[in-house]
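Inputs:
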Amino acid sequence: MSKHHFKEYSPHHPDVITSMEFERILSATGPTGGELKRPSDGTKPKTIAMISCVGSRDERYHPYCSKVCCMYMLKHARIIKEKYPDIKVFLFFIDVRTAGKDFEEFYVYTRELGAKIIKGGRVSAVDVKPNGKLRVRGFDSDLCSPVELEADMVVLATAIEPPDGIEELGSMFTATCGREGFLREVHTKLYPVETQARGVFIAGCVQGPKDIPESIAQARAAAAATAALVIPGKIKFEAIISEVDRDKCSSCGVCVPLCPYTAIKIVEYKGKEKAYIEPALCAGCGVCASACPSRAITFHGFTTEQIMAQIEALTEP
Amino acid sequence: MEEVRVNVIDLTNSDENFVKELEELGADELRECIQCGKCAATCPMALSGLEYYIKRIIHAANLGLRDILLEDSSVWACQSCNRCVEVCPMDIKPYEVIQAVRRAAIRVESCPANTYEGLRNLYRFGHAVFPKGFEERRKKAGLPEKPPTALSFEEMRKKYQELLRNTILEEIAPFPLT
C-alpha cells in the first residue's frame, strides 16, 4: 500500500516512508548504495520509528493481518542495529506476531541488539514539529501509558494487498476472488493450490499474504499438482458430465455464457454452428442442461428418464 | 501558574547507557525479556498495587527510562521473595534487575532516606535492623542484655567496620555517616 492513504502519519513528509522504500535504502543496490540516509537531506538518522499494521487489521482498509510485517520490521531493526549500533530504533506494534520456526529466536535476538519494542498500541499520529522533526504519538501497554517520541525518520509497515486487475485476471480462467480480494483456493486444507478451473493452480501472495518460504512451498505444491495432471499423458474426466446432442441443438448459444468453467463453445457440425462441451473442462454442475430450451443437453447420471424414475419410485403407493 | 503535567512518557530521552549500566550491575539478561508478565502475576508488589511492579520496571529499564526508575520508589519495596526468578520463562532473573536498579540509584544517591539510616546502623551495630528496648525484659528472663549477635562483640565489629570501609559503599556513603 502507498503511504498516502494515511493522512494521520504525515505522508507528505519525505522522511515518512514505507517499508518497501526502506528496504531499497538498506539495499546495497539501492539508491543510496546501502548507506542509511534520510530521503529529505541525506543525513544519517539518529532515531527511527517503525509502525506496524498500517492498513492491516483495519476495517477501513484491510481487515486481515499481512503476516510478514512483524518479521521484516524486526529484520530491518536488526540490520540497523548491527550496522549502526548508535541509532535508536523504536518498533511500535499492536502485538508482535512471530509464529513459526526460528522466528521467536529472531525476535529475542533483535531485542538483545537493543531495538526498543513498544507493544499494545497503534501509533495515533505522526506530526511534523516546527523544528522539522517527526513527533510519533503512541501507547505502550507495558508501561500503561501514552508515549511520544521525536524521530528523524518514520517507516510504515503498510499492508500487503491484492493488485489492481486481479479480478479480471481470475475471470480469464474462472478463478474467483475471496472477500479480501485475493484469488480463492478450492479448499483451505484439502485443495490449497487448486482453483475452480481445472488445470489452473495458484501460489504465493496472489492467494493471500505470505512470506518467502511459504510461497516457495506453495509454488512447489502447485508445480507438483500440475505435473500429476500432465505426466500420465492422459486426463481422467469426471464421470458425471454434460453432453450436447448436436442434432437437437438449435444453436441459440444460451448455454455458452452460463458455463462457470468455460467448457462450452460453438463449433461447426454438419455445416452448422452447434454447441460443444469440452469433457476435460466440464465439472458436471448441470447448469447448461437445465437451461437448454431445446433439451439438447444430457446431464449424464441425471437424465430426464433417471429423474422421472426416481420420482415414480418415491411416489409409489 | 502551576505547571500542568501531561500524562505522557517521552521516549526521546531513552538512554541506552542506562541499559548497559544495569547489565553491568547484574541484570545481564535484561534485554531478553519478552514482557510475558508471568513475574507480575506472582509478584506481591504487583498484588499490593504498586505503580511500578516488576514487569513495568523491566520494560522501563529496557527502554532506558532512567529518570522514571530512579525517581520512583517502587524498587525499594521489593520483598526479595524471588518468586519472579523461579517463574521467569526467559531466565531474566527479574530480582537481579531490581537489585541493579537499586545499585544504580545508590550511585546517584537516589534512594529513600531510611536507606542511609539502615547503612548507618549496619556500620555501627552490624545490623540494618535490630531489636531495641528489650534489655530489661531480657534481664528478667535471665538472658544477657544484648543478643549474641554482632551487637555483643565489639572487637569483631571493629574488624567488620574496617571491612565495610574497604567496600564500594565507602565511596557512595562515607562511614560512619553521622
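Chain A has eight helices and twelve strands. Flag for discussion at group meeting.
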